[in-house]
Write a structure and sequence with these properties.
The complex is a heterodimer of chains A (about 475) and B (about 475). Chain A has about 475 residues and is mainly alpha-helical. Chain A is elongated, with a radius of gyration of 30 Å. The longest helix of chain A is centred in the first third of the chain and has 44 residues. Chain A has a two-stranded antiparallel sheet with strand order 1-2. Chain A contains 18 helices and two strands. Chain A has one domain. In chain A, helix 7 packs antiparallel against helix 18, helix 12 runs antiparallel to helix 14 and helix 13 packs across helix 18. Chain B is an all-alpha fold and about 475 residues long. Chain B has one domain. Chain B is built from 17 helices and two strands. In chain B, helix 5 runs antiparallel to helix 10 and helix 9 runs antiparallel to helix 14. Classes of the chains: A mainly alpha (about 475), B mainly alpha (about 475). Chains A and B meet through helix 2, helix 4, helix 9, helix 10 and helix 12 of A and helix 2, helix 4, helix 5, helix 10 and helix 11 of B.
Chain lengths: ~475, ~475
């Protein structure tokens, strides 16, 4: 019986011009977005791979120079993307794309694409994820709002009841019909995007970006299925309980506006109110103050430098830096860097923690809006969330720390007995030292890390699913030809 | 007659509970948008003031040190701020700032992603690191709940809610036949209904926005800002009229209320959500910007090539060491600066094609977006409102161009002294050029906004005309 009801629903839906047109629009938008996304992804990947290689060559062949000069020359780290990013660009437009790794400073990833965009950017990016997160719910509501309320208005519900159709079976049949109709739109979408993906990302054998790819893909499909199912259950319940199909539609669209448009923006404001983001100046000030205490490796006349020297001489029981078993200049550089590490951990680490707290506040709003939860999970699995950007920044910074330590250690060992000037200007290292600094490498987080970080959103989505079906179950008992 | 219908309508509306929920909520949103924008404006003001103060302090400290040196204080070579090379490259800096205009609270626009202050030194602006304001990417992506959001997204929704069933409700409740038996044509009924609802919703939007803005931003009372306030009112009225026009046209089709609601929501989703996002995608796909990755690489390779061509090497003056370490350092540093500035110019010339391509593509992309915005009244309104706040992409481009010019000025000022290998005089340090932001002239901005206003007017006029023409053919007997 359920199957027969579902078949009838499907047939009726397909004969309904509104659904067909909306379905076609969703399909076209989805395919366009995926096509453009896949093309952009493969171009970016090619550029990045060339740049990574070039940058490594430049580093290795920078010629003979002082290790500290090499530290200033630095290295660029380019943020890689995982293949799912072409489906969900997430927050990529608002996070930096590359990070300059040099001596003395922890730079943040810079060049957010949004800075270069036109004003239209703020209306949002048309992406596969946007179509699924914002437009498909409307399709579901359009599909479901009249399923019961409409039958009631047309008087056919009374007939159905009189024929002895069990209420539960009727409702499950309707739900299955909605699922089938949605499948008619979404399955071609998935099929075409799979083909596009295969065309554009084929040959991407990079084991780094492909970490846990099949698992991530499976989970993301599951996330969207759960999301759609919860919304369909909610919409059907509303259709059962509403006075009229118009009332059902109004309620559902109202929910879409509040949950899909208002709550995400308001949650951003609330999160900022609860956890204040420091201004760039406050941060720069804290960093400067923190670093002022350093040994001022470049300034031999600075009191800090003199005091540091005195301390080291006492420690080693010698009267002159020349008598130290290593280069004092290298040690001073390293001490200065190590103080920097601590200061940066406090400042930038603090910012990252603030962002995490803010994001947790936003995730909390998922309780009122499944849109928030699905966006969080989808971007996390696609490697386009803030965690991913932070992981990249942290990887860049630990690479930088290793790089300057290797360089300073070399000065310490090989510039022994040299004066400040000679150690900085006279001592030259060569390719064999540059080779000791390994190429930059970044592994995206695996599926376990991602799931672990987003337990709350998973829980919230699960709540929406059980809540939606619970409501549908209770509503199904109340199906009546009159209200 | 119209006045009479309006009075009756008002009585009806006043008895609808939805009116008492929707309108106050809307009013609160408007007020919240104004408050949010105002808070953002003071945040920008503080940052800009702080940046300027920092630059001033830097210059003052240097002058102070110079005075001490002139008075005979003992100092090492590296401590002397007058040495042109280090002063131009890293010791000296200016913060080029773009202070918010009094009308900045109208819309946050691009000001949350485009910096309002930039550090200027010798190095190319492109290479300047850590100048971005710190903001959680998730918050940036969510978008701000500012006045422009309330007006562009929510304002039409309220209009839809209040007007989707202007005629259909009469028909569905059976009162239409009664109405039409009166000696009044349908379009007059509709006109009266629109005038009442329009007066209410548009009046509320314009009233709360403007009164709220003026109360919380008293600096907007100057004539240079008041014309922008007037323009905001005109834009809101036209945008509102457009949506009432859509409502008229949809009602004139004579469909059920539910169908009307669906059609109007579909138009909203298409014009406010989908069209701008599609245009954005089109702008990015037709005129893709060269990747920042390519630009960084071009710069790096340019440096490399220039260094090889000129045989650049840091001079180690072991010969001077016997004299003193200080003398050797001074000679090395001077030699470095003599070589490095021309070297960098050469490197930048090598890398310049991609930067030029970037700039020209960016212009093309923006022109494309500017032209295509005419496909969506929401996009027109968004861009126009951002212009009023001086937070549009065009406004930031203009600021960046001013900064680029100033950067050139900075370089020119220092180039000669560095090449002559000399120290600046005190007067020369005092006269280091400073940056002052000149907002685009009212005439230029008004000219751009005028185009938007005309386009909005045409949109509104077209749908209203279409709606009322359809109404003349309206048949109450249908359905």
């Amino acid at each position: 019986m359920i199957w027969r009801i579902a078949q009838k629903e499907l047939l009726e839906t397909i004969r309904d011009g509104r659904f067909v047109w909306t379905g076609v629009v969703v399909f076209v938008l989805f395919i366009t977005a995926i096509g453009v996304g896949a093309q952009r992804y493969s171009e970016d990947r090619a550029l990045r791979q060339v740049a990574e290689q070039e940058d490594r060559e430049l580093w290795l062949n920078q010629g003979d120079k002082g290790p500290h000069s090499a530290g200033h020359y630095g290295v660029y780290a380019f943020k890689p993307a995982t293949p799912l990013a072409f489906f969900d660009p997430g927050f990529n437009d608002y996070t930096g794309t590359l990070q300059y790794l040099e001596a003395h400073r922890e730079n943040q990833a810079s060049y957010k694409p949004a800075t270069d965009a036109t004003a239209l950017q703020r209306f949002g990016d048309l992406s596969g994820a946007m179509v699924l997160q914002l437009l498909t719910p409307l399709l579901i509501f359009l599909l479901c709002f009249g399923m019961i309320a409409g039958e009631r208005e047309d008087g056919t519900l009374r007939q159905l009841m009189s024929m002895g159709v069990p209420k539960m079976k009727l409702v499950w049949g309707k739900a299955a019909g909605a699922g089938l109709a949605l499948g008619v739109v979404l399955i071609p979408c998935i099929f075409v995007s799979a083909v596009l993906a295969a065309l554009f990302i084929q040959g991407d054998g990079d084991p780094h970006t492909m970490v846990d790819f099949p698992a991530k893909l499976a989970v993301i499909v599951l996330v969207y299925l759960v999301f759609f199912a919860s919304l369909a259950a909610l919409a059907l319940s509303v259709s059962i309980r509403a006075r009229s199909s118009a009332a059902a539609l109004t309620a559902l669209i109202g929910f879409w506006i509040v949950a899909g448009l208002l709550i995400p923006r308001m949650s951003a404001d609330v999160s900022k109110l609860m956890y204040d983001t420091p201004s760039a100046f406050e941060l720069a000030d804290t960093i400067q103050k923190g670093r002022e205490a350093g040994p001022r490796a470049h300034e031999p006349n600075h009191p800090n430098h003199i005091a540091f020297k005195k301390k080291v001489l006492e420690e080693y029981g010698v009267d002159d830096v020349d008598d130290l078993p290593f280069s004092f200049v290298g040690l001073a550089f390293q001490a200065d860097e190590e103080l920097g590490f601590k200061v940066f951990d406090e400042t930038f680490g603090g910012i990252r923690r603030t962002f995490e707290k803010q994001n947790r506040v936003r995730q909390f709003f998922g309780l009122f809006s499944p849109f928030v939860a699905v966006k969080t999970l989808s971007s996390a699995l696609s490697g386009t969330d803030v965690h991913y950007a932070n992981d990249f920044s942290k990887a860049g910074e630990s690479y930088r720390r290793n790089m300057v330590t290797i360089l300073n250690e070399d000065i310490k060992q090989n510039a022994t007995g040299m004066t400040q000037y000679s150690a900085e200007w006279g001592y030259r290292a060569n390719k064999s030292l540059w080779e000791k600094v390994p190429p930059f490498d970044f592994d995206p987080p695996g599926i376990q890390t991602i799931l672990g970080r987003n337990m709350f959103s998973i829980f919230v989505l699960f709540l929406w699913l059980t809540g939606g079906f619970g409501l549908l179950y209770m509503s199904a008992k109340r199906v009546d030809s009159q209200l | 007659m119209i006045a009479k219908i309006m009075t009756n309508e008002w009585t009806l509306l006043a008895r609808e509970w939805a009116t008492y929920i929707a309108l106050p909520i809307y009013a609160v949103f408007l007020a919240y948008g104004v408050a949010n924008g105002t808070a953002w404006k003071s945040f920008l003001q503080e940052n800009v003031a702080e940046a300027k103060a920092l630059a001033n302090e830097g210059f003052e400290k240097k002058l102070d040190k110079i005075d001490k040196i002139i008075a005979g204080e003992e100092h090492s070579f590296s401590e002397d701020p007058r040495v042109a090379g280090p002063l131009a490259r890293y010791k000296g800096y200016e913060f080029a700032t773009k202070p918010p205009l009094p009308t900045a609270a109208i819309a946050i626009g691009q000001s949350d992603v485009a910096p309002s202050y930039l550090k200027v030194q010798w190095r190319p602006m492109f290479k300047q690191q850590n100048v971005d304001e710190i903001e959680n990417p998730e918050n940036l992506a969510a978008g701000a709940f500012d006045l422009s959001f309330v007006l562009i997204y929510l304002f039409p929704l309220l209009i839809i809610a209040l007007s989707y069933n202007m005629l259909s409700a009469e028909r569905e409740s059976g009162t239409q036949v009664l109405l039409l038996s009166q000696p009044v044509p349908v379009h007059k009924f509709v006109l009266a209904k629109i005038l009442l609802r329009g007066g209410l919703v548009i009046g509320l939007a314009v009233g709360i926005s403007i009164i709220g803005l003026l109360i919380s931003n008293p600096d907007m009372l100057a004539p240079s800002s008041l014309w922008r306030v007037g323009a905001l009112a005109v834009i809101l009225v036209l945008y509102g009229l457009f949506w009432f026009g859509v409502a008229t046209a949809v009602n004139a089709m004579g469909q059920k209320s539910a169908t009307n609601a669906l059609v109007m929501m579909a138009s909203w989703i298409f014009l406010v959500l989908i069209a701008p996002a599609v245009l954005n995608l089109a702008a990015k796909s037709f005129y893709p910007l060269p990747s920042r990755i390519e630009m960084v690489q071009a710069m790096r390779l340019g440096d490399e090539q220039a260094a090889k061509e000129s045989g650049f090497e840091r001079a180690y003056r072991a010969d001077l060491l016997r004299k003193s370490e200080e003398a050797a350092l001074e000679a090395s540093v001077n030699d470095f600066y003599l070589k490095v500035l021309p070297l960098e110019k050469q490197a930048e010339a090598i890398a310049s094609p991609i930067f030029e391509k970037f700039e020209s593509r960016k212009k093309q992309q923006q022109n494309f977006a500017e032209n295509l915005k005419y496909l969506s009244p929401a996009a027109i309104t968004q861009i126009a409102i951002s212009e009023l706040a001086n937070h549009s992409a065009a406004n930031f481009n203009d600021f960046n161009e001013q900064v680029a010019q100033y950067h050139e000025e900075w370089r020119n000022y220092f180039f000669q002294p560095v090449m002559e290998n000399r120290k600046l005089s005190r007067a020369e340090v005092v006269n280091i050029p400073r940056f002052t932001y000149e907002p685009e002239s009212d005439g230029v901005v008004a000219g751009r906004i005028f185009g938007n206003v005309v386009a909005l007017f045409l949109f509104a006029a077209a749908v209203i005309w279409f709606g009322f023409t359809q109404l003349r053919r309206y048949s109450p007997a249908k359905r």
